[in-house]
Write a structure and sequence with these properties.
By secondary structure, this protein is of the alpha/beta class. It folds into 3 domains: about 230 residues, no CATH class; about 140 residues, 2-Layer Sandwich (Alpha-Beta Plaits); about 220 residues, TIM Barrel. It has 23 helices and 16 strands.
């Protein structure tokens, strides 16, 4: 039994060896024939182009009006083919003799090209003289006898040109036509001069033409082709020999194939797993999801999304992000397996489940339980705890995934809700977004972005600077840009607004030397080439020291990019502010690490500060921290006297709001330079 098993192993190994040998043979044979075919095809193309070049040269000699670009184009194509063949290491290494002969062809072709340029150098004046000779006759005032002489010589010239035959010019005596030089007729004198040019250049022209047509490039190519075919014939004999050897293994291959079939079945199982499963989490993937919902009716789909997952990737890296996804996948699977429900990973941080035979109330109840279960878990990675929150979109109609995603995006805008169910009304929002997208593109194309200026005051109600804000001009109306801001970022046109603001700001700063401005920028702007160019212009014009760049804290996803920008332009005197500070989770330590100058306290904390003691205490703590860090503060949304007085009392440095001054299309209380 052991001997049988040993023989089976030996036969299997031989079969495998045969398979590998055939694969290797097939690979190199295919590579050989592909490369050889490339060389043969290119040589054939060169030969055809060389013949075409001769034809174009002949054609140019026959016709007075001829497009010499065809000659230049053909020469360029031959050089391209030569360059291609010289770049093939296979040609140089495997067909050494043919390659050496090909280099001789290249050398000869370069000489031929020089002859062609010389030929064309003589061809142009020759053809110009012929054109003039033929066109000037109608302006002659000669006697009939002299006209016949002129026509006779002209006939011989055209015969010589068309046949490239010097014999037609043997009997032409130029002295007999010197009388034309004594004529008062300008055209008769010019006729003589052009006749003289033709007789002078035609022999040289013919000499170059004959040299070109008899040049040995065609012979060179035939030698290359012959050497190439000789080597190919030798190689084919070698391939025949290898094929014969490999055929001896056919009997062993039968068993090897059987073995391969078994292996293939296992591979198909693995491939099937890869096709239907997400590699990172081990959950079913989007392909499997699409297969499972394809023919099903009366089902529901819920899509779970990790809130602000991008922040985890940005702050802790993709490796940590992947580990978080793995854990969430495990929790999702553990929760839903007791209900016999599959879990799918359908996007970067999107997980989906399919509900069959569940009513709406049951689905929503189960979804909320799943959220509660997963959010209660603490993920520990490298001793760092992570607690994630989820948002869910649910759809009860096709296309399930797309409509669940619409509901998900809708619910993410509402921080108080976690589960959204798709309704037809949500399509109206999409249609409205499409309409607004079209509108804002037209506004940008028609220069409809307009700058407005809102003053920022000190505690004595003196204007310290102006914030440059944007409005949109639609027809004759000026409207708020706010409804378009989110769309501008989604369609990646927000930088157009910033560019307009910077251009207007530069104009104002140059016009008014005592004015300081504040402009809003985003993280997308910092990575935009046009934005960086405009900021450099502000620096070159030496007005950047009167600019404050305001950055929304909530939009800072890459602190390093922001820090680099601040450090670079602080050297030029620019100031920097964090806008809407306190509107969400404020990392004071991170803000301080960026070396900013001003904290603009969000209007949500300011507008009711005169009525809400808690808000007042929050703002007081922000102002206290800012003063300790030597940072200035600005109160936004100062809409009445009471708010203004409370903010002054707390110790805020600057104030902005409709109570003090509304945005205007022009500056107030300023003098031009």
């Amino acid at each position: 039994m052991k001997k049988v098993n040993f023989k089976i192993v030996i036969i299997c190994l031989i079969g495998i060896f045969a398979l590998v040998s055939i694969s290797v043979f097939s690979f190199y044979a295919k590579k050989y024939f592909v490369k050889s075919n490339e060389i043969l095809h290119t040589l054939s193309d060169i030969q055809e182009l060389d013949n075409k070049l001769n034809y174009e040269i002949l054609s140019s000699s026959m016709y007075l009006y001829y497009d010499t670009d065809l000659i230049a184009f053909t020469i360029r194509r031959i050089h391209e083919d030569i360059k291609f063949l010289k770049g093939l290491d296979f040609f140089q290494n495997h067909y050494k003799k043919a390659y050496e002969e090909f280099l001789k062809f290249e050398s000869d072709f370069n000489k031929k090209e020089e002859l062609i340029f010389e030929y064309l150098r003589y061809s142009f004046p020759l053809k110009n003289s012929l054109i003039y000779l033929s066109n000037s006759l109608k302006h002659f005032s000669l006697s009939n006898k002299d006209t016949k002489k002129v026509l006779s010589i002209l006939s011989n010239i055209f015969l010589a040109k068309s046949s490239i035959d010097m014999d037609f010019l043997k009997n032409i005596d130029l002295d007999k036509f010197k009388f034309l030089m004594n004529s008062n007729n300008f055209y008769e004198k010019a006729f003589y001069k052009n006749l003289e040019i033709f007789l002078k250049y035609f022999p040289v022209y013919k000499k170059y033409l004959n040299k070109i047509l008899s040049f040995p490039t065609e012979k060179d190519l035939k030698l290359v082709d012959r050497s190439l075919m000789d080597q190919i014939n030798k190689d084919l004999k070698f391939f025949d020999f290898l094929s014969l050897l490999l055929s001896m293994f056919i009997s062993f291959l039968i068993f090897s194939i059987s073995f391969a079939v078994i292996k293939l079945e296992n591979y198909i199982k693995e491939l099937s797993y890869v096709l239907t499963h997400d590699i990172l989490t081990g959950l079913y993937n989007r392909y499997k999801f699409n297969q499972d919902v394809k023919d099903k009716q009366d089902i529901a789909v819920a899509v779970f999304n990790i809130d602000k997952f991008k922040n985890i990737n940005d702050y802790f890296g993709n490796k940590v992000g992947d580990l978080v996804l793995e854990h969430i996948g495990i929790y999702m699977k553990d929760f839903f397996k007791k209900y016999n429900i599959k879990v799918y990973r359908v996007g970067a941080d999107d997980f989906a489940v399919i509900f069959e035979d569940w009513n709406k109330n049951e689905i929503l109840e189960l979804v909320n339980k799943a959220i509660e279960f997963i959010e209660s878990q603490t993920i520990i990675i490298d001793d760092t705890p992570f607690n994630v929150s989820l948002s869910v979109g649910v759809s009860f109609e096709r296309p399930y995934l797309e409509k669940a995603d619409i509901a998900l995006k809708k619910i993410k805008k509402n921080i108080l809700e976690k589960v959204g169910v798709y309704t037809k009304e949500m399509n109206k929002e999409i249609e409205e977004n499409i309409k607004r997208t079209k509108e804002i593109k037209e506004i940008i194309d028609n220069n409809g972005i307009v700058s407005y200026f809102q003053p920022i005051f000190n505690k004595d109600r003196e204007i310290e600077k102006y914030e440059v804000l944007c409005r949109v001009k639609i027809g004759s109306q000026i409207k708020s840009i706010y409804p378009y801001l989110r769309l501008l970022k989604e369609i990646r046109l927000y930088h157009k607004v910033t560019e307009k603001v910077l251009k207007d700001s530069l104009e104002i700063l140059l016009k008014y030397p005592d004015i300081n401005l504040s402009v809003n920028i985003s993280i997308e702007d910092l990575m935009n080439e046009n934005f960086r160019f405009l900021v450099e212009e502000l620096a070159k014009k030496e007005v950047i020291d009167r600019i404050t760049f305001e950055i929304l804290e909530s939009e800072i996803t890459n602190y390093e990019i922001v820090k680099d920008f601040i450090q670079k332009y602080k050297r030029y005197g620019a100031s920097f502010a964090i806008d809407d500070f306190g509107s969400g989770y404020s990392n004071f330590q991170r803000v301080l690490s960026m070396d900013i100058d001003i904290l603009k306290i969000d209007g949500s904390l300011i507008k009711n500060i005169h009525e809400d003691q808690i808000l007042k205490e929050v703002v007081e703590s922000i102002v206290d921290l800012a003063k300790k860090a030597n940072k200035k503060t600005v109160a936004e949304f100062v809409h009445n006297k009471e708010v203004f007085e409370v903010c002054k009392e707390i110790g805020i440095d600057y104030f902005q709001g409709f109570y003090l001054g509304e945005p205007q299309p022009s500056l107030i209380n300023v003098k031009k330079s």
